Amino acid sequence: MSRFEPATVNLEFDKRVGDALQDQELRANFRGAMDFLMGKRAAMFPDKEGLEALRTQGEAIRNRCLSQLPELLEQFEQRCTENGIQVHWAETAQEANAIILEIMHKHDATRMVKGKSMASEEIGLNHFLADHGVECLETDMGEYIVQLADETPSHIIMPAIHKNKQQIARLFNQKIDGVEYSENVDRLIGIGRDVLRQKFFEADVGLSGVNFAVAETGTLCLVENEGNGRMTTTVPPVHIALCGIEKVVESLRDIPPLLKLLTRSATGQAITTYFNMISSPRKPDEKDGPKEVHVVLLDNGRSRMYADKQLQQTLRCIRCGACMNHCPVYTRIGGHAYGTTYPGPIGQVVSPQIWGLHTAGSITKACSLNGACGEACPVKIPLADLIRRLRYESNNSEPTSVPAPRGQGALRKRSEAVTWKLWALLLHKPGLYALALFIATRLRALAPRRIGPWTRYRSAPKPAARSLHELAAQRSQSNASSQEHGRHE
Amino acid sequence: MQRAYPEKPAQVYFFGTCLIDLFYPEAGMAGIQLLEREGVKVIYPQQQSCCGQPAYNSGYDNEARKVAAAQIACLQGGLPVVVPSASCADMFRHHYPDLFADTPLRKQALDLAARTYELTEFLAHVCKVRLVDHGPAATVAIHNSCSAQRGMKTAQDAISLLRQMRNVAIVQQERASECCGFGGTFAVKAPDISNAMVQDKCDNLLATGASDLVSGDCGCLMNISGALEKRKETLPAQHIASFIWERTQ
């Protein structure tokens, strides 16, 4: 899975899922990792009521900020500009890529280092820049590993979570000159660090993501554990931050509760090793830091999500990945099976809205609506409800909101639609339903032993000899007659 | 937050659910008999069919609404509605108000939602049943549906009823809270993923060495026991109403 190709999401989804389910090593890696992460998160929130209170607070903060998103974005731009940060607006992935390339060109830059940014994966930045002769090196250890393997991240927080240490040992041995096979994790990290250190010093531009953009102060906040974010944003002479427009919060006071929720939900850490707050480029009397800081504010479908009251809840996401860690489907198929930048429950909601239902709507199938994701979500996004809503939008071509999700009705299948019409006809006419029950129970001996995909893995259920309708009617009749009888006596 | 429960009413409606109606009617009858033994008269409206959830979850809202409206029509009149399935109860309680949000039936949907109880919830909190166990010793694994755990939050009620049973020991399965992979049409639309989930569930249940499997949802039961049967493994599975009724007479 070397490159994210939106066009293949719907087309090859079932195949990718099948392949993932067959891969026992992959399944063992994910099961182990997700169990570990669920345990870590649970240990961070021993007090259930405390967790609920914090989630409610997190939800309220995100809702308050989203409710004034346009104003906050304007304020953020103004503050950044006052601080000497240059702000750019990108409506589409193409625009964002072009803006970033232009900044690179302005500085005759050919080497970029990147701190982890899912938004840059979303817009396909690495490949775009490679096509224009720019070398882009991932500096997050997990991202570095997947880049080396010519893969995409399989998790939004832990990009290489699908690999075990043996696989990484093999990869380093094969891909990095002079590296011997070693399963020693410290040794492996040391190897990565040696490669990356050199690259930080050589890079012309550092690109990072943004966890929170503070409107009141024009501050970019970046959460990380490895120091690569700090290196990326301070060592090269130019820093570009790529920031989804939903990331803006009102003030610094909003950060502590969200940060607490983010790190505990994501990796089960009370705090991360680094929390970077960037509020300007290097000042004249300062010895380090980039000479230029740019922020690219990325829309790419977000204002479309914003326009619908229910779907707007998608934008509360603080990208912790807890929904993935708790999803029984993600645990079994892993991130690559979805075929989208954002996998798992939040990916099932975000991806079809970014790339359109006609392109990425099929991934909403991979959900049993069990609700474990919404229960884990630190900002209470009703993920199962949103997945269901997008299924509806996939089948339905009448606009429900303005603007409706792109690709509305694109997955409607005539045969399926007719089946549900018949189903509704049968079940809303009591006479027809009673007749169907009667036939099914009387002809139970003829009940099919194979029912499509159901009986591939399960035996077929057999209709009862008498339906509950009949049994209940008999019982109320006999109750009535015994009462009648009792009165006569 | 715990729901405020009313005094035990003289009469209730019983909503049997379509799966119970056709495949597990004995579970429905057991539910009715458990209620009547508590002195609650049970009315089973013959016009009922299905809560509409299969279409709703598949993204066919118009079809779901049509069927749902028929249920609202036959469950009028203010009586509590008792449902032997957390999943269908959850549909009434939490999804009907959304489904009918911008329609003339909104008020009736909200009214039905407020009157809806899952069977074990109703037995435990409204009837406050005291069960006397006459059955043989049993070690029971409980499978609580996702709706019981997260939608209705009644998983604890099934456990508390079984705890009243003198000869029943409850055994804990690994990853008890994980979905069994049924998900209604999910089992058919994503059969391979669903299978991976139900196989793990079967493994975890068999590993407990339980003598019986009990659940408050027939969808999960159909999925789990269907998969066990295909594997030629035996773990007798029953709806919790049948299990309790058989042991307490």
From TrEMBL, chain A:
<keyword id="KW-0677">Repeat</keyword>
<keyword id="KW-0813">Transport</keyword>
<dbReference type="InterPro" id="IPR003741">
    <property type="entry name" value="LUD_dom"/>
</dbReference>
<dbReference type="GO" id="GO:0046872">
    <property type="term" value="F:metal ion binding"/>
</dbReference>
<dbReference type="Pfam" id="PF13183">
    <property type="entry name" value="Fer4_8"/>
</dbReference>
<protein>
    <submittedName>
        <fullName>Iron-sulfur cluster binding protein</fullName>
    </submittedName>
</protein>
<feature type="compositionally biased region" description="Low complexity">
    <location>
        <begin position="473"/>
        <end position="483"/>
    </location>
</feature>
<keyword id="KW-0479">Metal-binding</keyword>
<keyword id="KW-0411">Iron-sulfur</keyword>
<feature type="domain" description="4Fe-4S ferredoxin-type">
    <location>
        <begin position="307"/>
        <end position="336"/>
    </location>
</feature>
<dbReference type="InterPro" id="IPR004452">
    <property type="entry name" value="LutB/LldF"/>
</dbReference>
<dbReference type="Pfam" id="PF11870">
    <property type="entry name" value="LutB_C"/>
</dbReference>
<feature type="region of interest" description="Disordered">
    <location>
        <begin position="465"/>
        <end position="489"/>
    </location>
</feature>
<dbReference type="InterPro" id="IPR017900">
    <property type="entry name" value="4Fe4S_Fe_S_CS"/>
</dbReference>
<dbReference type="InterPro" id="IPR009051">
    <property type="entry name" value="Helical_ferredxn"/>
</dbReference>
<dbReference type="InterPro" id="IPR037171">
    <property type="entry name" value="NagB/RpiA_transferase-like"/>
</dbReference>
<dbReference type="InterPro" id="IPR024569">
    <property type="entry name" value="LutB_C"/>
</dbReference>
<dbReference type="GO" id="GO:0051539">
    <property type="term" value="F:4 iron, 4 sulfur cluster binding"/>
</dbReference>
<dbReference type="InterPro" id="IPR024185">
    <property type="entry name" value="FTHF_cligase-like_sf"/>
</dbReference>
<dbReference type="GO" id="GO:0006089">
    <property type="term" value="P:lactate metabolic process"/>
</dbReference>
<dbReference type="InterPro" id="IPR017896">
    <property type="entry name" value="4Fe4S_Fe-S-bd"/>
</dbReference>
<keyword id="KW-0249">Electron transport</keyword>
<keyword id="KW-0004">4Fe-4S</keyword>
<dbReference type="Pfam" id="PF02589">
    <property type="entry name" value="LUD_dom"/>
</dbReference>
<keyword id="KW-0408">Iron</keyword>
